[in-house]
Structure formats: C-alpha cells, structure tokens
Amino acid sequence: MTYRKTALSAAIVTCLVLAAQAQAQETAAPAPQDAGTATDLDTVTVVGIRASLERSLDTKRNNATVSEAITAEDIGKFPSTNVAEAFSQIPGITLDRRFGQGERVSVDGTDPSLNLSFLDGHPVAQAIWLYGEQPNRGFDYTLLAPQILGRAEIIKSSEARLTEGSLGGTILMHTRQPLDLDANSVAGSIGYSYSQQAGSGKPNVSLLYSWKNPAETFGVAVSAQRYQERVDRQGLEVFGYAPALPRDQNGNPLPPTFPNTDIAQRDPNAKIPNSINAAWFQQDRKRDSAVVNLQLKPSDALEFNLSGLYIKEKFDNYNQSLYSYLTWNQGTQNAVDRLDLGPDGVVTGGHSNANAEEGGGTVIYDNQVRLSEVVTKGLDLRGAFRGEGWGMSGQIGRSKSENDNLAQYFIEPVYNGGFSWDINKGIRFDDPQGARNPANWGSSSWLGNNGVFSTESEDTYGQLDFNVNFDSVFNQLQFGVRRSKHEESFDLNVYGGVRTGTLADVGTMGLTDIRGFHPDHGRHVQAGRYNVLQWVRNSPLDFGNPDAASYLNNSWALEQTNTAGYAQLNFSSGGLRGNVGVRFVRSETDGSGFVYSGTPTLTDLDSKWQTKSKSEDFVLPSLNLAYDLGENWVLRFAAAKVIAWAPYNQMVNNTFLNDTQFTGSGGNASLSPYESTNFNLSAEWYFAEQSVLAASIFYKDIDNYIDSSASVERQYNSIKDTSPADWANIVGTHGCTADGYCDYSIQRPRNAGKGKVKGFNVSYQQPFGDTGLGFVGNYTYADGENNTGDPLPYQSRDSVSLSPYYEKGPFSARVTYNWRSHYLAGGYVAGAAPASVDDYSEVGASLGWTINDNLSLTFDAQNLLDEEYFQYLGKKSMPAGRYHSGRRYMATVHFKF
User: Fold this and answer.
1) How far apart (Å, rounded) are the C-alpha atoms in residues 624 and 443?
2) 657 vs 215, which has greater pLDDT?
3) What residues are paired with 463 via a beta bridge?
4) What values do phi and psi take at 62, rounded to 5?
5) How many other CB atoms sit within 10 Å of the CB of residue 830?
C-alpha cells in the first residue's frame, strides 16, 4: 500500500511535466455517457479527412477520461478491410498480423485478451473459426465490417460506470442510428479485393439504407455487406528443438538423442530442430453481415433503440505441411548420420539416411482440409428517459455465436528415404524424382482421420442506470446495476477409419509453389483439397466409435455470471472537471471438464464430468480529473483499480494434447483474475486549428498475474489406438510405456504473483495551411514484465504510426506506416513455448477521387513491403516460423444518394 501511495504522489507531480493524448470520439457530450448509450451524433455532415479530425479533437478536449476515437469517415479513409486495421493509427494501439491482417488489438502494451469490446454497449459473442485453436476473451475484429460503424472509442482510463473486465482499455463501437441520418438515404460500395501472392481476387458489396418519418420520431436503418477475400500464407516452421544430450527430471544425463552422430561430444548443450516444415495455408473467407436498427424517440425525454445483428462467416481453408521428422521415434533418430552445428549452439543442418535397418529418414506430408462456418446472432433493446433533473436508461439483450461443425479432413502420408536439410531452406532429397512420385507417399497402417469441433459462445445481459443532476460543483450522480452471464462450450470428436493407401490412390494435382525453399521442398508433390476431402469422406469412417482421449481431453464448458453495482459522481468547477466512483462486482464461475485416470473410455461420462465453482467479490474505485489550463492546454489524471479474467479455456479442467510433439496445454479452474491499479497522466496542447501535440504516461501495477509454465504430466497417447505400428516405434521414447501413457510437457496457467507495465505515448496532428497536406503520427513506449522478469505477451517496447495525407479538391491520398518492435506471442502448436515475433512493419496507401456528391472512387493497398512475419524461440538463431502473406489491393466504387 505504501508503494502505491508513493507511486500515486509521484504521478501527480509528474502530471505537470508529462502527459497523455487521445484522438477522441465523434461528438462532444456535456457529461459522461452510459456505456450502453451511444452519444448523439452532431447534425453537421463530416466531409473529408480534415473535418473528421477536427471533430475528434473537439471531443477530445471535452472528455474527462483518457481516451481515443475514430469516426466512420476516418475508417473510410484508411486502407482497411476490418475494424482492427482502421484502429492501427490510434496512439497505443498495436495489431498482431499472423495471417497478414489485423485480428486482435493490444492497448498500451497489454494482451488483446485483457481488453473489452462492446457494440452499442453490449458484448458480441464469438465462436472460434480455426480448427485446434482455443477461444479467448480478445475480440476478433475480422468479425465486423467497417461499414456498419458510425464511430468507435478506446477508453484507456476506467470509470465506475464502465463494465468490469478490462486491464488495458475498453473499446466502444457504435453503429449508425437512423435519426442521425437523412430520410431515405442510401449509401454503399462495390469493390474488388486482390491478393498478389494468391494470384486471385474476390468481389465485395455493401449497402446502407435509412428512413425516418417527417416528425423525426421514428426511424429504421439497415446495413448489409458481403465481403470476400483470398488468404494465402506461406512459410517455414520449426516444430521445437530437442537437446543433444537430454536429461531426466533430476538433471541426470540420458543417452544422446542422436546416437549415430557426435553432436553430444561437440556441444552437449546443442539444440536440434525436431523438424523443418514448409507450410502453405490457403483460405477463402466470406462474411455476410447485416445490422438493423430501429429508433423510436416520441419526445426529447424518451427514446428506445432495438438492434438486430446477423453475421455468417465461412472460413474454409486448406493447410499443407511437409516436414522432416528427426525425433519422432528411435528409428528416425537412428537415421540421422550428420548434424551441422551453427551459431549459439543451434544445429542448422544435417542428413538422414535411407537405411531401413536404422529406421530410415522420415518425411511427413500433412493435408488438413477444414470446413468452418460461424453464425453470430444478437438482439439488443435500449431505452432512456430524461426527466427534469434526472434520468434513467436500461439495456437488455442476448448474443450467441456457434460453429457446430468445424470439421477437419486429414491425411498424413509418409515418405521414407534419405534427405538433407537446412534450417533456412528446408529439405533436399537424396532421390528427388523418387520423392515426387505419389506412389512413394502413403501408409499401410494409418493414413488419417476426421475431426469435428463443436463450439458455442453466448452472452446474456441486463443493465439499469440512473442519473441525478445538481446545480453545484458536483453536478451529476450516476448509479446503476448490471448482471451478465457468459457461457462457453467446446468439444471434439475424432473418427478413425480413413482408408490406407498412397497419394497415387488419393490423387494429386501437380507440385506446390511455396516461396523461400529449396526446390525439393518448395515444389513438392501436392494432393489438393478436393482429393483429400473426397478420400476421407468416401472412407468407412467409424462414427460410432470416436477417439476417447480426443473427446475427454478437449471437451469443456464454462459459465461465468457477474453481478455489479456502481455509483459515480461527476463534478465541474472552473477549469477542473472529472468524476470519482466505485464499482462492486461479484463473479461466480463454474468450470467443467472431464477428469479421469487409466485408459480413456467413453463409458461413465457423467462420473468423469466434474465442475468446480468459484465465487469472488471485488471493489473497484476510480478517479478521473481534467483541467483546462488556459485556452489551449488540457491536463488529465486518472487512477483506477481494475480486473481482467483469463481466457475461457484456461479456467476449466481441460487438457489439449499434441500426441506427436508430446506437448500439451490445459486449464486451471482455481485461477483468480488479474487485478491491477492503473494510473494515467496526460497533457494536450491545441496549438492551432485542427492541431494538437499531446503526451501521456501510463503505469499498471498488476496483482494475481497469470503466467503459464510447463511441467511433466503422464498423459494417454491416442496413437496407441489409432496407429499401432507407429506406437510400437514410440514405446520407450518420451517415457512411453506399453499401457499408452507418456511423459508430456504440459503448459498450464497459474496466478504467479505480480507484473507491471509502464510507458508513454506522444502524438502529433496538424494540417499545413491551405496546401491540402497534413500529418498524423504517434509513438508509444511500453515496458512490462512479471515478477520473474519475463516479458509480457503481445507487448512491443516501441511502436510508431505515421500517416501523411493530402486532400484538396476532388483528390485525396493517404499513406500509413506502422512499425512495432519484437514481442512475445502465442505458441505455434498446442502446448509449445510462446514464440517471439520480430520487428514488423506495415505500409499501406489509399487514393480517392470524388466524382460528384453521389459518387467516388478509392484504391487501397496493404502490406506494400511484403513484410515477413518472423517468430523465434528466445534467440533469432532459433527460428519458429517465417511467413509471407503478400500484398493486397482493393478498388472500390462508393455511392450515396
């Protein structure tokens, strides 16, 4: 407590020197608005980049909180295909682009899972789309079409009225309301998106229609969009590293991993890649979305809003992985006869022989055809009454997202023969022609399976808010209650029975063309998604006997109910304004999963299904101060206690295993949420019209920090049941015994003590007279670590955003540059240690031409540098993944009348 008081006192003093920025919301409000009620839009039509930025600055000056915002006009002026990309120019916002475009956002150096996002004041449920991925709390912004939004706000400092659960920031997105638009207005676009790497494109269309009666008391707005694109990601992957001289749990040396080499004598601490993979992910994404808003405002005192949301997304994809396997079993280890030692004790190359007596070199070709369709629906009702000196508002609704047939059709043919490999260029076969013969790829014992995930996410919520106004320094009291329930469920069934054979039987379609590899590896034999799909579907799949271990280890459910009440007092006196408040939260969670011992079976499931309940109470005070220092300066200070929960799958007793890597990840139903005391200081200098120079500092003192660590657990390996021949080679390695149990390295979360995040933002915005030129830029520094000194996930120490623009007459142009330094991200396979992502740059451009008041053209480009997404394990000499997604282009015709 003494430390926090000292930090707070120092922060207040520092407030006079350093401070914050925000690129605010679309309209100014005289008093803080409820999170569930969108601020009324100004009646002035926003036209052009400069007008939009000016309105943002006006709002910024009137806010009590440290916040940022972006308007619909801004979104249309950035080269963006989703809302996350539009956010990329906001100070403190960074994106992770694992598939070449932004999906989830970090706020001031925090993990995306520790931020909250709301649409018109309510949560939007999300079911996962990627087979094998686990759901988390971070919002996936590819879900929302930019065209449905009127504005979005990023609130970095907390208020008592805001829903609990965010450590970094709360993002409030608002759809367009009919009474703010002209009657019988129509707006839309027709466009085409093109992926250079994929060599193909897709058409897109959006439409908005709004109507209101002459009295402007009732209106309807309908927006719909179809968006399609081709995603193509190619890259090199390394599936972890094995020690040259492994040790047991007591640290005693074991026999060398590769007995036919002298690597253990040359460097007993050497690290050898388990495999070098050429990965090619191809996907056709399709998003059909519709939003309907009904607005009834019979008087200035009474208003109702009914909103409906429907989104249907298809994420079908085909992932090919061809990789050497050096450590799979004793046979593959014995086949290794040469290892080349590189810098930092990392083996950079080697050779496996074709000697069948030694097991022979083994190369595996994974073909994963995945069918994925996510349907999200939501219904939300809001109401507000403004009486004489008081008011009340309420909100109730439900959001549900389902992906009940996330299917994978999988075959894994194997090639046995000699090959050499290089950590940067991949495999070179001793017999290239033999390796390109489909008849040499296959299996007579096991070839694949069919897996089906089913996942569902649902939010139900209700909220009631009151406010009372006073004619005094303390001008408004806000208080209210909220109750919400989130339900998440997840299960997996894996079916055997795929026919054995070779790729000659399955069918092939020429060679791949994966960039950056030796021709043997980059241009290898290719099965093709249609051939794989048909082969598995036409096999005698054993649907009556799903794999027991897969089901038991991957099926879980979570129910979390939060009940909250708050009181917030707003005040204003002279140049000082702000609010002080407190929020009380009771959280009740029920985490359920299968707990069993011995051989996994699908009998007596009720007795194996166990639920652990947990109830916790939290008191969350907050303070926000803003001081208008003269005509051109605003100083701000904020302090708050906040909480944030771990991802859903981490709060249950589940275990996800990778049976070939002998790794896994699992949950912990005893987890408590992160608790953090956050401080923000800011100063803003409005030195000219439409201009600002701003600075801010932030500090987050985190308790109950959740860390993930690995420990050895005995788990059942399903290869024993699905592929007896392979299992015979595995017994004796990785602690595997004849009963099917092996030693796995299992990552599980735990409350690991403390963490901290400190940093600052600097932002600058200015148009240059009547030249048409202008500039928006910002820099963020974030430095955080847990109590053991390890870096925090998804935190870049440095990030830069630069956006010069030109707008004069009918022509507009904008260039965006985003750069972030390296950061820690998620692992690449289940249970793998988190990998670092190297420095990443994104350059985009947008050109526009206004033909007349009703018609305009835009051309956008993204990833113009064709940046590499490079992951590594601790050191860059230990690569984990190198990916390219290529440049993307979009041409669009916009219309309105």
Assistant:
1) 66
2) 215
3) 395, 482
4) -95, -10
5) 21
Q: Closest Cα to residue 42, out of 151, 145, 117? A: 151
Pair type for strands 663-666 and 741-751? parallel
The domain spans of the chain are 2-240+275-316+372-412+447-498+541-896
Give me the amino acid identity at 580: V
Asked whether the whole model's pTM tops 0.85, one would answer yes
Question: Any idea which residue has 């992985």 for tokens?
Answer: 321
Torsion of Cα atoms, 128 then 134 then 135 then 139, to 10°: -80
**Distances from the Cα of 39 to the Cα of 48, 151, 292, angstroms:** 21, 10, 18
Find tokens 């629906």 and name the residue. 377
For the four alpha carbons of 64, 47, 93 and 174, in that order, the dihedral sign comes to positive
Q: Are 461 and 123 in contact (CB under 8 A)?
A: yes
Alpha helices, H only, 514-620? 519-522, 529-537, 548-554, 605-608
pLDDT in tens, 219-241: 999 999 999 999 999 999 999 89
Place of tokens 């690597």: 263
- Mapped onto helix, strand or coil, the DSSP state of residue 720 is helix
pLDDT of residue 10: 35
3-class state of residue 17 by DSSP: coil
Cα angle value 223/226/229 (rounded, 5°)? 145
Radius of gyration of the chain (CA): 28
Max CA pair span of the chain? 92
793: left (phi over 0), alpha (psi -120 to 50) or beta: beta
Q: Residue-wise over 813-826: b if at least 16 C-beta within 10 A, else e?
A: bbbbbbbbbbbbbb
Chain-centroid distance, C-alpha 176:
25
CA distance 829 to 833: 9
CA 115 – CA 828 distance, rounded (Å): 23
Say what the alpha-carbon torsion angle 822, 824, 827, 833 is, to the nearest 10 degrees: 120
- CATH architecture of the domain covering 2-240+275-316+372-412+447-498+541-896: Beta Barrel (2.40)
Query: Among residues 204, 41, 96, 82, which one has the least CA distance to residue 818?
Result: 96
Count of CB atoms situated within 10 Å of the CB of 241: 19
User: Taken in order 492, 406, 369, 112, is the CA torsion positive or negative?
Assistant: negative
Strand order in the sheet with 419-422: 336-341, 347-352, 419-422, 426-429
- pLDDT tens string 761-775: 999 999 999 999 999
pLDDT for residue 19: 30
Which tens digits make up the pLDDT trace of 651-710? 998 777 888 778 887 888 889 999 999 999 999 999 998 899 999 999 999 998 888 778
DSSP SS3 for 208? strand
Contact call for residues 169 and 162 (beta carbons, < 8 A): no
Distant-in-sequence, close-in-space partners of 1: CB < 8 Å, separation ≥ 6: none
How many helices and strands in the chain, by DSSP H and E?
14, 47
Sign of the C-alpha dihedral computed for residues 679, 698, 101 and 321 taken in this order: negative
End-to-end CA distance of the chain: 60
Which tokens go with 194? Answer: 């093109």
Do 392 and 466 contact (CB within 8 A), yes or no?
yes
- Give start and end residues of each alpha helix (H) in 629-760: 719-722, 724-730
| CA separation for the pair 586, 561 (Å, rounded) | 8
Tokens of residue 38, six digits: 């969108």
Cα(154)–Cα(158) distance, integer angstroms = 11
Q: Provide the 8-state DSSP code for 148.
A: G
In 3-state terms, what secondary structure has residue 885?
coil
DSSP-based three-state secondary structure for 252: coil
Task: Work out the burial of residue 339: count CB atoms within 10 Å of its CB; fewer than 13 is exposed, 13-18 middle, 19 or more buried.
Answer: buried
Tokens (6 digits) for 90: 């906001």
Amino acid at 388: E
Contact present, 115 and 392 (Cβ < 8 Å): no
